[in-house]
Design a protein that fits this description.
Blueprint: H1 14-22, H2 26-36, H3 43-50, E1 54-60, E2 66-72, E3 78-82, E4 85-89, E5 107-114, E6 119-130, E7 134-145, E8 152-157, E9 167-171, H4 176-184, E10 187-195, E11 202-210, E12 217-220, E13 223-229, H5 236-243, E14 246-252, E15 259-269, E16 281-296, E17 301-307, H6 318-329, E18 335-346, E19 349-355, E20 369-376, E21 379-386, E22 396-401, H7 413-421, E23 427-434, E24 447-452, H8 456-473, E25 479-485, H9 494-503, E26 508-514, E27 528-530, H10 535-541, E28 548-553, H11 555-567, E29 575-579, E30 600-605, E31 610-615, H12 621-627, E32 645-650, E33 653-655, E34 666-668, E35 672-674, E36 684-687
Parallel strand pairs: 24-25, 24-28, 25-26, 26-27, 28-29, 30-36
Antiparallel strand pairs: 1-2, 1-5, 3-4, 4-7, 5-6, 6-7, 8-17, 9-16, 10-11, 10-14, 12-13, 13-16, 14-15, 15-16, 18-19, 18-23, 19-22, 20-21, 20-23, 30-31, 32-34, 32-36, 33-35
Helix pairs in contact: 1-5
Length: 689
């Protein structure tokens, strides 16, 4: 937080505005900021500061380096003379040789925080008067902060006779004690400042940073890397870094009363994939130490950790991030997963809880699937199953319906194996989660999820993830689930879904249709309809034509829903689908590929060192490989699951329409054929298979 930009009357300066613009929240924050950022302290803020036992200060020293420090005293050591003035009576100022030399008019950032109640308020102020025992400030900006990432701590005042003698030690590199403190810290404070060139528009700020122990990474004895989580979108700290890449950090030893202050250069890491593996990180920033100081036994205060913030529990640490990175590198390899638990969801559906190998943390996008492989009756079988767990769970969960078979369809080989022969503590081979059917609707936009039977599994994952993100971003989603089942007993996850509704009644609405209710069913539960989903029912529950719709179920079910949705003017681009087995959704404007197919081609399978002649009558490359004794991985054969994805190092293919995500140099064997060359030469393909 900084001084108001007088030229634009905006509560945010150019650096803050630039980041808000970059992240698409500029207009929203301008409206919001003008309402909550004041040029005076409300009465409740004044009372809050006067009851504090400590306060954090950010300022710029005589070398224009931001510094973070804290002052303390008995409750009442801060006085509010008026809504625009504060006096801090702190004899500890006498021991702060840097701060004591600040001139009148210097900009000060102030953070009042009570770790016991997790309440905090912030000020941007101008120094009026500074003595060895007091500091008088004129308030220029004031606003409250939410308690996210603040850990709850109980405070104890230590009596002077029991205190050890205070001492200081300057450092230029992080010593072993500093590294240990930083690695175990779940809280620190960061000071930043800015001054626009050729202008008196300037400001200083100090803010709180919290996370799991280990959320600050020590790269070496002069470098730290820090995740930046979803916050209030003010971007006071990062906005200052954009204009003045300097920072002051303050770490507290809450048990012994030591302070570690660091000063150095800061850089924002916008274009790195490291935060991809760090749970909760929106971006990263890096700190390069230039100078620092230990203040041993400085504080007459001690804190006991009572509980972590609920938002902190939604984040990760660098050890977990490294495990996630390793898991990603192994995503295309078969690995052994342990079945830790098996739960009956309905008479025909079981959930299998899988523990990933090598202490890997689960990482996937809501809606994706897990690919499993097993030898069943002497034959290798591969299947994909949507994940019904959420990305923040510490396990993978697949929920599998037992396919008993009928006159048209044989019994399910893999589902029978899982239901009848798998037990807790068994292991099974699996590849890391994959799939393009993922939840990507922003919280301000309605989302409708429509499922039939076991198609509810990815929907549950999506709902749980959306509600999880709502806590982290403080932005409530608008979710509607419509699920069709045969009878009341077949309502998989009914209790779990009801609990989610009770937790978030304004964010989630659920409707069921029962096509073949039990004979003794006299009345339907609330929001439950007898019969199948109808177009009229669909129209009644869709909140808006401008919404996203997710479909999962058998092919005829999804095709019917898709047709009705289009009739109701839901845009084709806003309808997303996942299907069972060989089914696939036929869209009005399917982007089928009309690229010319070669009449003949030479196919080199590099792993098996096999070279074969392919002709147009041989069909897709998966069929061709199997005809010649090769056994590539596959599951759906329709380009939905991506299990048959391989790399091609020479040549080109033409794909039929598919929904699997492909990177450069990847093809799907199940729906790819050699592409004709302009010169009508016989093409040669080299495939890693």
């Amino acid at each position: 937080m900084n001084a108001i930009n007088k030229q634009t009357l905006s509560p945010f300066h150019q650096g803050e505005q630039a980041i808000q613009q970059r992240l698409g929240v500029r207009d929203k924050m301008e409206r919001f900021g003008s309402q909550v950022i004041r040029d005076y302290m409300p009465e409740q803020h004044r009372e809050f500061y006067q009851n504090l036992s400590y306060v954090f200060i950010g300022y710029t020293d005589l070398n224009n380096r931001p510094q973070a420090t804290m002052l303390w005293g008995a409750p009442g050591f801060i006085e509010s003379l008026s809504p625009t003035q504060l006096i801090i009576n702190a004899p500890t100022l006498a021991g702060d040789s840097v701060m004591r030399h600040l001139p009148a008019g210097a900009k000060i950032g102030l953070l009042g925080i009570d770790l016991q109640t997790r309440r905090r308020n912030r000020l941007s102020a101008r120094l009026i008067q500074l003595t060895d025992t007091s500091i008088k400030l004129s308030v220029e900006q004031a606003f409250g902060n939410c308690p996210q990432y603040i850990q709850q701590r109980g405070l104890e005042h230590i009596q002077p006779p029991t205190l050890s003698t205070a001492s200081t030690s300057d450092i230029e590199h992080l010593n072993a004690a500093a590294i240990q403190l930083i690695k175990q810290s779940d809280t620190f404070f960061v000071a930043s400042a800015y001054q626009l060139s050729g202008s008196r528009n300037e400001g200083a700020d100090i803010s709180h940073r919290g996370g799991q122990p280990g959320f600050v990474r020590v790269d070496d004895d002069q470098t730290l890397t820090i995740p930046d989580y979803a916050g209030n979108f003010h971007f006071n700290t990062l906005g200052n870094f954009l204009l003045n890449p300097q920072a002051g950090l303050l770490f507290i030893d809450f048990k012994q009363g030591h302070l570690l202050s660091l000063s150095g250069r800061a850089e924002i890491l916008w274009d790195t994939d490291e935060n991809r593996f760090f749970n909760g990180a929106e971006r990263l920033w890096r700190f390069h130490l230039q100078q620092g100081q230990w203040r041993y036994h400085a504080l007459p205060l001690r804190w006991d950790l009572q509980s972590y913030s609920p938002n902190t529990r939604l984040t990760g640490n660098w050890e977990q991030a490294e495990a996630a990175r390793n898991a990603y590198q192994l995503r295309k390899q078969w690995q052994s997963y342990q079945i830790s638990r098996i739960v009956d969801e309905t008479p025909g559906i079981k959930s299998f809880y899988l523990k990933p190998p090598s202490a890997q943390q689960p990482q996937f996008k809501a809606g994706q699937y897990l690919t499993l492989k097993a030898m069943i009756n002497g034959k290798q079988q591969i299947r994909t199953y949507s994940l019904s767990s959420a990305p923040d769970d510490d396990f993978y969960r697949i929920s599998v319906k037992l396919e008993n078979g009928n006159g048209d369809h044989p019994p399910g080989v893999f589902s029978g194996f899982l239901h009848e022969r798998s037990q807790s503590d068994d292991t099974i081979l699996a590849k890391a989660p994959d799939g393009a059917f993922v939840f990507a609707t922003p919280p301000e936009r309605p989302a409708v999820l429509i499922a039939a039977g076991i198609g509810i599994t990815p929907m549950l994952s999506m709902i749980r993830q959306a509600l999880h993100e709502a806590v982290r971003h403080r932005n409530q989603p608008k979710l509607t689930l419509l699920c069709s089942v045969r009878n009341l007993q077949q309502r998989a996850f009914y209790t779990e879904l009801n609990a989610l509704v009770q937790q978030s009644p304004d964010a989630l609405k659920i409707y069921w249709t029962i096509s073949q209710p039990e004979a003794d069913t006299e009345s339907m539960p609330p929001n439950t309809f007898q019969g199948r989903i109808t177009k009229r029912l669909l129209q009644s529950i869709i909140p808006s034509q401008d919404c996203d719709v997710y479909l999962c179920g058998p092919d005829n079910f999804m095709q019917t829903q898709y047709t009705w949705l289009r009739d109701l003017d839901i845009a084709d681009a806003n309808i997303f689908s996942e299907s069972f087995g060989p089914a696939t959704l036929m869209r009005e404007q399917s982007a089928t590929d009309h690229e010319p197919i070669a009449e003949q081609a030479v196919i080199h399978f590099s792993r098996s060192q096999t070279e074969l002649i392919w002709s147009k009558n041989d069909g897709y490359l998966l069929d061709f490989a199997e005809q010649h004794g090769l056994q590539p991985d596959f599951s759906c054969r329709n380009g939905q699951c991506g299990a048959c994805k391989v790399k091609i190092t020479q040549g080109q293919v033409a794909h039929k329409a598919h929904s699997a995500a492909l990177n450069d140099g990847e093809i799907l064997l199940c729906c790819a054929q050699p592409k004709a060359t302009p010169q009508h030469e016989t093409p040669k393909l080299s495939i890693e298979c």
